[in-house]
Design goal:
mainly alpha, Rna Polymerase Sigma Factor, Chain: A
Length: 169
């Protein structure tokens, strides 16, 4: 890679690094795994930068690379391990308790969605991608994006109502 290409690559990555990291976290819900996914993605991006920079929607393409890296990681045998309910103590930032509870509830609900559906919901509603951009990023049809988004939202609504009925009981 020549110097101009490398400078362009570095500028692209530095501007989008935090957004990629947050998107990865929303997909996997673990900061260390999110960092690993971003590292894998920017490594692949570096190797293929000359080709990728000619793509019409580079941001969508890179989010697709990130999503595919996450889906690949989930298929690995050691990812089938389950975590326990006992978590170590951790310090929380000074965030109002209601906002923190709402955020944790949303993350818990997202974690209950199947991986592909979660990817569609995150890309469509967090990353604010269009149906077509999401389809390109995931390599699926626009109709599949629409149906997965609708089913994802329906599942989230059902999970919220189940959670609300448990609290009321």
């Amino acid at each position: 890679m020549n110097r101009a290409d490398e400078d362009e690559y570095r500028q692209f990555v530095s501007v989008r690094l935090e957004s990629l990291r947050i998107t990865a976290y929303l997909l996997c819900r673990e900061w260390h795994t999110a960092d690993d996914l971003v590292s894998i993605t920017i490594g692949k991006l570096y190797r293929h930068w000359r080709r990728v920079r000619r793509v019409e929607h580079v941001d969508a393409y890179v989010r697709g690379m990130l999503t595919n890296a996450w889906l690949d990681e989930r298929r690995r045998p050691w990812r089938r391990e389950r975590s326990t309910d006992d978590l170590p103590d951790r310090a929380e930032p000074n965030v109002p308790e209601v906002a923190l509870a709402d955020r944790e509830l949303l993350l818990d609900l997202l974690a209950q969605l199947p991986p592909r559906r979660r990817a569609v919901v995150v890309l469509r509603f967090y990353c604010d991608l269009s149906v077509e951009e999401t389809a390109r990023a995931l390599g699926i049809s626009a109709g599949t994006v629409k149906s997965q988004a609708a089913r994802g939202l329906e599942s989230l609504r059902a999970l919220v109502s189940i959670d609300a009925s448990r609290e009321g009981a």
